[in-house]
């Protein structure tokens, strides 16, 4: 079992690593997209895109968000550049 001190040390280390990663993203002019913030990057959507099944990805996206077909298609097309 992990102790409180060990947990806090790990939490601190993760924070340091996140800061360094953000620095690298800025330095390399990379826009990071958090997969948890965009339904188009949800694991099931990513998997459908990796299999080359864009239509399934659009259906899943629509189920997750409730948006129309055109908006879902646009979102999936934007997401494709990050998945492949």
Can you put this structure into words, describing what you see?
- The protein is built from four helices and no strands.
- Helix content is 70%, strand content 0%.
- The model has no long low-confidence stretch (mean pLDDT 88).
- It has helices at residues 4-27, 43-50, 54-65, 69-83.
- It is an all-alpha fold and 84 residues long.
- α2 (43-50) runs antiparallel to α3 (54-65), α2 (43-50) crosses α4 (69-83) and α3 packs across α4.
- It is elongated, with a radius of gyration of 17 Å.
Q: Helices and strands, in N-to-C order? A: HHHH
Shape: elongated
- Radius of gyration, in Å, reads 17 Å
Low-pLDDT sequence parts: none
What proportion of the residues is helical, as a percent range?
over 70%
Structural class: mainly alpha
Total DSSP E strands: 0
| Average pLDDT over all residues | 88
Contiguous helical run count = 4
Major sheet: none
Give the CA-CA distance, first to last residue.
39 Å
**Percentage of β-strand residues:** under 5%
Record keyword descriptors for this entry.
single chain
Please give the structural blueprint.
Blueprint: H1 4-27, H2 43-50, H3 54-65, H4 69-83
Helix pairs in contact: 2-3, 2-4, 3-4
Short description:
With 84 residues, this protein is mostly helical. It has helices spanning 4-27, 43-50, 54-65, 69-83.
């Amino acid at each position: 079992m992990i102790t409180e001190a060990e947990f806090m040390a790990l939490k601190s280390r993760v924070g340091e690593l996140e800061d360094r990663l953000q620095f690298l993203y800025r330095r390399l002019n990379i826009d990071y997209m958090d997969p948890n913030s965009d339904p188009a990057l949800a694991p099931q959507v990513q998997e459908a895109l990796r299999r080359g099944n864009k239509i399934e990805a659009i259906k899943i996206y629509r189920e997750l968000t409730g948006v129309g077909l055109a908006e879902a298609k646009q979102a999936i097309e934007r997401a494709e550049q990050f998945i492949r």
